[in-house]
Amino acid sequence: NGAAGVRFPQTTLEPATAWMRDALALFERQSPLALAALVVTLVVAIALTLRVRAARAGAAPSPALAPGAPPTGRAWPWTVGAFALVAAVVAPALLTRLTPPVAPEPALRIEVVGHQWWWEARYPDHGFATATDVHVPLGRPVELAITSADVMHSLWIPAIGPRHDVPPGRRRIVSFTPDRPGVFAGQCVELCGASHANMHLRLFVDEPAAFDAWLANQRLPARPAGDSLDTDPVTLGQRAFERNACRGCHTVRGVSEGPIGPDLTHFASRTTIAGGMFPRNDSTLSAWLLHADRLKQGSTMPGFKIPQKDLVNLVRWLQSLE
User: Fold this and answer.
1) Can you state the angle between helices 308-318 and 233-243, rounded to 10 degrees?
2) In this structure, are strands 164-166 and 251-252 parallel, antiparallel, or unpaired?
3) Percent of the chain topping pLDDT 70
C-alpha cells in the first residue's frame, strides 16, 4: 500500500534523496555496458560451443564460428573484450561510495521498531510515538535507528535507500536528507511471519511548516472528551474504550498507558490502520474492531464482541483523536 492512486508505489526509479539519485544515475550509465557485455559473452560462448562440437565430431573447426567472430586462433580478443566490459560495469559500482552519509547535527532522530506486524516510530527528542505513518521535514537530515521487538525484520523504503535487515538485539542507523516532498511507500522485506506481506510503512516528507505543525500536534495529549457522559457520543466512546480490553494494550496519553499495541493518542491523524492494510475510515475501523484476527492473519489483537451502540461511539471517539 502506498500513496493513493499510485499503482506501483515502491519503486527505486523515483528517488527522494541525493544518494538514491546517484545510485539511479550509476544504474542508467552502466546498463548499456552491461547489455554489451552480455552480447559479447554470448558470442564467445557460441564460438566455444561450435569449436567443441567440431572437435568431438573429428572435423576441423570452421573459421567462422559465429557471425562476425574471428577465426578460432584469434578468438582471444573477444574473451578479453567480454572481461573488459564486465570490469567497466563492476568497477564504478565498487569505486563509487554508495554508503549513505552520516547525518550531520542537528538531525531529526526517529526510532523505528519492527513488530509482528507493524512499524512503530518513536520521536525521542519530542516525547511521543506513532505508527505506520512516519513524518519527516523536507531538506533536513534524518537519522532512523531501526530495531526489532521480536523476530528479524527488514525495512525498505525504495525512494530513500536499500533495505536494512534488523535481527533481534541489533540496531541499524540509516541517515538521509529528503529532497522531494511526497508520500513514499515502505515495506518489511524479510519473511517475519504470517502477515509479513501486511507490514507497511508510509514516509511523509512534509514542507517544513507543515511538519512543524504536525510535530506540535503530536506532542499534545489526547483531546479531552465532552462533559456530558450520558449523551455525547465521543465521551461515551471513550468510556467504551476504558471498559474494554483496549486500554490494556494501547496508550492514549491522558487516558491509558497500554504497552503492547500502537499508540493511539493521535490515531485520527494517520491515513491507515492495521499496519497499513486498510484506509482509515469508519467502516474499516468497525470491521477491524470486530474481526481483527480474521482480517490479519496471526494478529495478536483479537476480535471483540462490542454492542452496536458502543461500537458506533467507540469509532466516533477514535476518529476524534486528531
Assistant:
1) 100
2) unpaired
3) 85
